[in-house]
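Annotated sample (chain length 375).
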Amino acid sequence: MSSPTLVTSGPAVVASGAEDVSWSQWRLIWAKFRSHKLAVVSIWLLGAFYLIALFAQFLAPYGPWQPSPYAYAPPTRVHFFFNGRFVGPMVYRVKIQSNPATFERDFVIDKSQPVRVHWFVRGAGYRWLGLIPSDFHLFGVGAAAQINLMGADILGRDCFSRDLIATQISLTVGLIGVFITFVLGCLIGGASGYYGGVVDNVVQRFMEFVTCLPTVPMWMALGAAIPASWSNLKVYFTITVILALRSWTGLSRQVRSKLLEMREEDFVVAARVAGATDWGIILRHLLPGFASYLIVNLTVEIPRMILGETTLSFFGLGLRPPTVSWGVLLQDAQNLAAISSYPWLMFPALMVVVCVLAFNFLGDGLRDAADPFKE
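Output written by the structure step:
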């Protein structure tokens, strides 16, 4: 018996074979999305990023501000064999010696003293999700040695731990900022498209004014206006609002154009005759009609938010130490000497690139899936 084949004729996909089965809209979208390999890989990659952000303190062997004498230590190599015998993950102790020729410090590996890597160890204390106190870490070597999988910075702080913990700030800035953008874009664009007339003219002129403002200089000006005495929490939410204030206009225009197209449809007239309020029609009938386009827009806006926070923090106008974000970490790589001598300081930039590309590929997949009949 031959297996059923999918044909795209008519308003739904049907399976030709033993029986015809109509597919729902969401099943069509999912089937189309799975055919986009890069989008599928991206959604798994982004899921891993957010899992890392959720359990960053547990995965990190050290605290983000925990110093050590190993300033600018190179990445630590993990070994599994000692004297030809498998012993599990281990590292060697590192001794710091002064080089009389270059007047620099050299890190000499002492291969006679291996140190085992232990799992589920106690270390620097932290509060998981800011609420639950704990000091458990996934792995560590204790005080016997130092394990820096991605090297150390100028104060000897573990770059691997700091990069993991920085994902919490950099990734959540995008989510919170996009939520604010989504609310502003839907409400303002919905009012403009539904009411039209004077309301539409006023809103459109205001959006044109906001759109004409240069993005980076405006972010820098607003970021510079943040008082230096503010707490990190206030700065965090202020940066989020600043990023959202510039990003809502694109979504608002899309919502307006869709509502101008749909506001005279029969179901809208019927809802109006039945006594539904204007905002009830917008929120319950019009916006859900193009929810797929809104989802695609959100996946495009999140990387813009991440890049905005990284840019502001990199120039010292956003988040500031001791807050740890990708932009704050990249402040240590602002000169070519640091990059050439300590290239591991650029790893946060690689994380930004991978995360932004993943969001863009995910947006492409969702954009294609929103129109399952598009070849």
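Annotation: The chain has a mean pLDDT of 81.
Annotation: The longest strand covers residues 85-99.
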